[in-house]
Design brief:
With about 350 residues, this protein is an alpha/beta fold. It is built from 13 helices and 13 strands. A seven-stranded mixed sheet has the order 7-8-9-10-11-12-13. Strands 1, 2, 3, 4, 5 and 6 form a six-stranded antiparallel sheet that branches. Helix 1 crosses helix 11.
């Protein structure tokens, strides 16, 4: 797949004929959403569903303004575990969702202490899916174990990603994550799990997450520029960068080289050269910088209040290729991570820019 096309599609999305063309899709919620999960030339991609996109699909081919790009497109099939409910009547789909073709993802606590407008990350819609009734506020460990087992047995899920809204506690939500990890590992002891959280106030919590059974961890900063952090994430941006660096270092010690990652969003106004330099520093300390274009999502302050727009694809491609080069130079592959966003790769073009993508 052409890396530049993969970047362009990640920003402009694809115009589909109807919802049945992307039966696995997500609206609102934590992380990249308003997307459909497709295979582009056999490679997983979480693509914005954009009715104004110049990209369309016909006969299983990706078209740009009606011309065949040479890429095949296949929708990820609706998983069978979506048809089940827990013993207490909660649809499995409200507990965890399929991402790409083989990743089970869940937000174990769908509320965030930083969700007041003055504190909220302007690109985040974590509580919108809760307001829409498409999820539940707190996923119980036993529920997650039940859903993970079904997803693995019925749909061949090969990894799990667990994230959480930030809590008021010193652990910032990591303790409940550990409980959920432990429950899933009890029924699926060999299924790789990634956890995602803010830097916990007590760094010993990172060891607790590993001891519970997580094998990779995402500590997501989104931007390395303090001015950008204050503007785009006033609550989360109050956590000093020194806490992030301490948490990353401890996580590398506990989880190992290239089992730690962080999101970096391109398009928030950070100087691209500074972003690349910061990403290279992360690579050198063993942290995988998962570079993703900022996506204006419905239900976020960035879209509904600020009117923010997606970044220039050429700028995203330049940043992504430069970060991919640093990853290659340090033999750091997303596919070598046990689980998580870098291991999946559907939301980023890093895999295609580094030449490591393989068919899902």
């Amino acid at each position: 797949m052409g890396a530049d096309t993969r970047v362009d599609v990640a920003i402009q999305g694809i115009r589909l004929a109807g919802p049945t063309d992307a039966p696995v899709a997500r609206r609102a919620g934590a992380g990249p959403s308003d997307d459909g999960h497709l295979l582009l030339d056999g490679v997983g991609a979480a693509v914005p569903l954009n009715p104004r996109s110049p990209y369309t699909v016909r006969g299983g081919r990706l078209l740009l303004d009606g011309a065949d790009t040479g890429m095949g497109v296949e929708a990820v099939a609706r998983p069978r575990f979506y048809d089940l409910t827990t013993a207490d009547g909660v649809p499995y789909e409200q507990i965890a969702r399929l991402h790409s073709s083989h990743v089970l993802a869940t937000t174990v606590v769908q509320t965030c202490v930083r969700y007041a407008e003055s504190e909220r990350c302007r690109f985040c819609a974590i509580e919108e899916s809760l307001r829409q009734g498409s999820t539940v506020a707190v996923k119980q460990p036993a529920q997650l174990a039940e859903v993970a087992l079904a997803a693995h047995e019925l749909d061949g899920v090969t990894q799990v990603v667990m994230t959480t809204g930030t809590s008021n506690g010193r652990d910032r939500g990591a303790t409940h994550l550990a409980r959920c990890v432990r429950a899933v590992r009890e029924v699926l002891p060999d299924l790789p799990i990634q956890v995602q959280c803010e830097p916990p106030g007590d760094l010993a919590t990172i060891q607790e997450l590993y001891d519970a059974g997580a094998r990779s961890i995402g500590i997501h900063v989104e931007s390395l520029d303090d001015e950008v952090r204050r503007r785009w994430m006033p609550g989360k941006g109050s956590v000093p960068m020194s806490e992030y660096h301490a948490a990353w270092a401890e996580a590398v010690r506990v989880f190992g080289w290239n089992q730690v990652s962080t999101y970096l969003l391109v398009g928030l106004g950070e100087d691209p050269d500074e972003l690349v330099r910061g990403a290279v520093e992360l690579v050198e300390m063993g942290v995988y910088p998962f570079v993703v274009p900022f996506r204006p999502l419905a239900g976020t302050l960035a879209t509904d209040v600020d009117g923010a727009t997606a970044p220039d694809p050429a700028a995203v491609y330049r940043v992504t290729t430069q970060v991919a080069a640093a990853l290659r130079a340090h033999s750091m592959l997303g596919s070598d991570q046990a689980a998580g966003c870098a291991a999946c790769g559907a939301c980023s073009a890093l895999g295609s820019c580094s030449g490591e993508e393989v068919a899902s």
